[in-house]
Amino acid sequence: MAGTDRGDLTRTAILALLGTVGPLSRSEIARELDLSPATVTQLTKELIGHGMLEELDLKPSRGGRPAQRLGLVGSAGRALGVKVTADHLVLVDVRLDGEVLGSWDKPHDPAAPDALEHLADAVESVVREISGVPPLLGVGVGVPGSVDDQAVGTVNAPTLGWQAMPVGERLRRRLHLPVLVENDVNALAAAERLYGRGRRHNDFLVLTIGRGVGAAIVADGRVYRGARGGAGEFGHLPVAPDGPQCGCGARGCLEAFVGSAGLLAAAEQAGRPPAERAELPAAADRAGRSPAERDGGESLGAVAELGRAGAGGDPVVRAVFAEAGAILGRATAGLINVVDPEVVVVLGEGTADWPLWQEGFDSALRAQLYPGRRDISVEVESWDDTSWAQGAAALVLATPFDAAGAAGEQGRLVRARLIGAAP
User: Fold this and answer.
1) Which pLDDT tens digit goes with each residue over 304-345?
2) Residue 256's domain is classified under what CATH number?
3) pLDDT (0 to 100) of residue 8
4) Are residues 269 and 324 in the same domain?
5) Where are the compositionally biased (Basic and acidic residues) regions (predicted)?
6) 222-224 and 162-166: which strand pairing?
7) Which tens digits make up the pLDDT trace of 120-130?
8) Which residues are registered as beta bridge partners of 378?
């Protein structure tokens, strides 16, 4: 390997270390990466010169001179994150250190013949708006489906009606920027690894609940993608062969029981149809939305109504959530038994009602866990609609810390933009 390549990899390793564990002294960097102090001094000097690192406070010493700590410079770069849903786009402008500088919400119909052109139009308009300082490193896109390769970005997403959709290629051709595309839950896991609880863990699970159910598996600090980029389709774990039909076409999937549509169906079977369900389609029609958009908005709005009723003490609704929580808990226990994570992080729109889920989830989870794993921590994080898009931005922002090269050629272009070189 050429010396310059080795130097680039070592610079990336230094950025990766500071990006995942926070500020460290030069001697701590040398120890963690098994580098000579002279090498660390030289490379960190270059990174400071590029505006990527800065000297922070002095770290107290037990004896001798206090050590100067180094940290990432958030203003060294920014990324645009895009979350594609069944009825709209959420876009966020995020700095290298995770600070959100701005957000946008735009209508979108993925079933339209010109869906990709509309997506490119929406992204391009925001790119023009945010051009300047910090420099834009690239665009990350999160989708509810499988993606062949982040750097290629061909999407199969049944919930969007997309098959072999060339999202990455179309956006790169329009924007002339690096573009990374990934399953939305995997993107959230990348954000957790950079800025969340994943900083402290090399092996963890991310579960999402809301309109659907998803999972991301982080093993040895990397998101496991599988052979075709489709790992983590937790919502399609078979639960009961004679269960309700799932949106994927099969029967009895986990998502058919505990996704938003499953919760609403269970509430109706229990004799309590949500009051708001009949009102939403008419309002959606007046807004000119497609049937797919109406279904998505109807489900989430009606589940929110269910949650309010449950929080108010409605026993039927509380029983529905508790049963869904128990089904989810048993399925999660199976996943934990297979992959053996250190911690489980729960995210998604459904976490707003987590106290209702928890009544059934905790006991079912612990009962099914393999001995020795029953004390695993399940951590629920706060949520808002921009969180998905922040995850997508993390695809780009994690690229300088990506020693495994998952981002391919697009990752090289991101790193080139970060250090100010022409791609």
Assistant:
1) 999 999 999 999 999 999 999 999 999 999 999 999 999 999
2) 3.30.420.40
3) 56
4) yes
5) 286-297
6) unpaired
7) 999 999 999 99
8) 344
Expressed as residue numbers, the domain containing 49 is 3-72
Give the count of domains, the chain. 3
Q: Which two tokens stand for residue 173?
A: 């051709």
Domain limit, last residue, from 72, 90, 124: 72
Written as six digits, the tokens of 72 are 């990432």
Q: What's the CA gap between 33 and 312, in Å, rounded?
A: 53
Q: Is residue 423 part of a domain?
A: no
